[in-house]
UniProtKB/TrEMBL annotation:
It comes from the Bacteria. It catalyses: (R)-malate + NAD(+) = pyruvate + CO2 + NADH. This is D-malate dehydrogenase (decarboxylating). It comes from Planococcus wigleyi. NCBIfam families: PRK08194.1, TTC. Belongs to the isocitrate and isopropylmalate dehydrogenases family. Its cofactor is Mn(2+); Mg(2+). Keywords: Manganese, Metal-binding, NAD, Oxidoreductase. One of its GO terms (molecular function) is tartrate dehydrogenase activity. Residues 5-347 form the Isopropylmalate dehydrogenase-like domain. SMART domains: Iso_dh.
Length: 357
């Protein structure tokens, strides 16, 4: 029987708090199901580590991570450390080197969650964000600094192969889950080089999936459609920047950042995939014990699905929904007064009840 080996990077701010609750839920599953074996190894890489060692992870950090079955990541960000360190020297190297080119972000309104939209239609779609290239590039530079003609150039990198693989992943997912439409986020009317290539390649990929409609929307209009008709989306495919922004908007429609998970997937399984809430380290509420752990617990559920235990993954999401519907244990972002730990414990207990063996 496999024992899943999980590298845990709790990170900064609320990262460690919400990650501890995700582990609590996984430990609860392990107690209940003798066939489920999982081990955690913590890596304390983050801003504290950077302040002490002058780098955010050891030189051989990626080597240390590469043999794990998956990575559970908290969040990083600390006002004493520039974001370009936390993002470009920890998150990006993991995503890029481990070829986690798919960022999957479910936008789904769970039972018991109120949407800020008056419309009570179900909201349930999947956003696939390109995760390895695009607008998040460190190519470019600053010129004429401190002069009146000062300028910055920031290059976007869109490759045919990069678009092909994310688009194929989105269409394959749509086919497997019997979805009828894939929506592509573009801006080829104004960004005429990179986004035109994006459009061409997405269209080419779509031709192999005759039964699935391709809808292509400009990103600005698409943002408006997210609010006006969120129930009409099934699968959305977007570049790195567009996907990032769209999914925070999507999260806001279904209960906020506190309940929105993600997976950074390496579909070829040549390196571990990484699972994390889409939120950051939330410095405004860090240390208060009130962060909502649901996004991170749900991310752990995505991890179990990826590892081949969709049954346990579903049990976690069911447990989250039941706790939300009961409405007794909720963190302040959901209108309650409970703590991170209380909500985590309520979900852990519920999941044990759900998988009585
Ligand atoms: P953020 O997601 O940390 O916070 C945005 C808002 O959402 C805040 O008001 C916060 O309190 C709230 N929020 C976030 N998660 C919550 C939760 N679990 N429960 C309740 N409320 C929650 O975004 P930000 O403030 O823009 O960024 C803070 C830091 O995090 C920055 O340093 C940023 O670079 C970093 N960041 C890291 C990641 C990552 O590690 N992948 C992602 C995004 C931002
Ligand atoms: Mn983001």
């Amino acid at each position: 029987m496999t024992t899943y080996k999980i590298a845990v990077l709790p990170g900064d701010g609320i990262g460690p708090d919400v990650t501890a609750e995700a582990i609590k839920v996984l430990e609860a599953l392990k107690q209940q199901d003798p066939d489920f074996k999982i081990e955690f190894r913590p890596f304390e890489w983050g801003s504290e580590y950077y302040l002490e060692h002058g780098r955010i992870m050891p030189e051989d950090g990626l080597d240390q991570l590469k043999s794990f079955d998956a990575i559970l990541f908290g969040a990083v960000g600390d006002k004493r450390v520039p974001d370009e360190i936390t993002i470009w020297e920890l998150i990006m190297p993991i995503r890029k080197n481990f070829q986690q080119y798919v960022n999957m972000r479910p936008i789904r309104r769970l039972a018991g969650i109120e949407s800020p939209l008056k419309n009570e239609q179900p909201i349930d779609f999947m956003v696939f964000r390109e995760n390895a290239e695009g607008e998040y590039s460190n190519i470019g530079g600053r010129l004429y600094q401190q002069q009146s003609q000062e300028m910055a150039i920031q290059n976007t990198v869109i490759t045919k192969q990069g678009v092909e693989r994310i688009a194929k992943y989105a269409f394959e997912y749509a086919r497997k889950n019997k979805k009828s439409k894939v929506t592509s986020a573009t801006k080829s009317n104004a960004i005429i080089h990179s986004m035109k290539l994006w459009d061409e390649v997405v269209k080419e990929v779509a031709e192999d999936y005759g039964e699935i409609e391709l809808e292509s929307n400009f990103i600005d209009a698409l943002a408006a459609y997210f609010v006006m008709r969120p129930e009409s989306f099934e699968v959305v495919v977007a570049s790195n920047l567009f996907g990032d922004i769209l999914t925070d908007l999507g999260a806001a429609l279904v209960g906020g950042l506190g309940v929105s998970p993600s997976g950074n997937i390496n579909p070829d399984r040549t390196f571990p995939s990484m699972f994390e809430a889409i939120h950051g380290s939330a410095p405004d509420i860090a240390g208060k014990g009130i962060a909502n752990p649901i996004a991170q617990i749900w991310s752990a559920a995505l991890m179990l699905d990826h590892l081949g235990r969709p049954d346990l993954s579903t049990a976690i999401v069911d447990a989250i929904e039941q706790v939300l519907q009961e409405g007794r244990v909720l963190t302040p972002d959901l209108g309650g007064t409970s703590t991170t730990q209380e909500l985590g414990s309520a979900i852990a207990e519920k999941v044990q009840q759900l998988i009585v063996k």
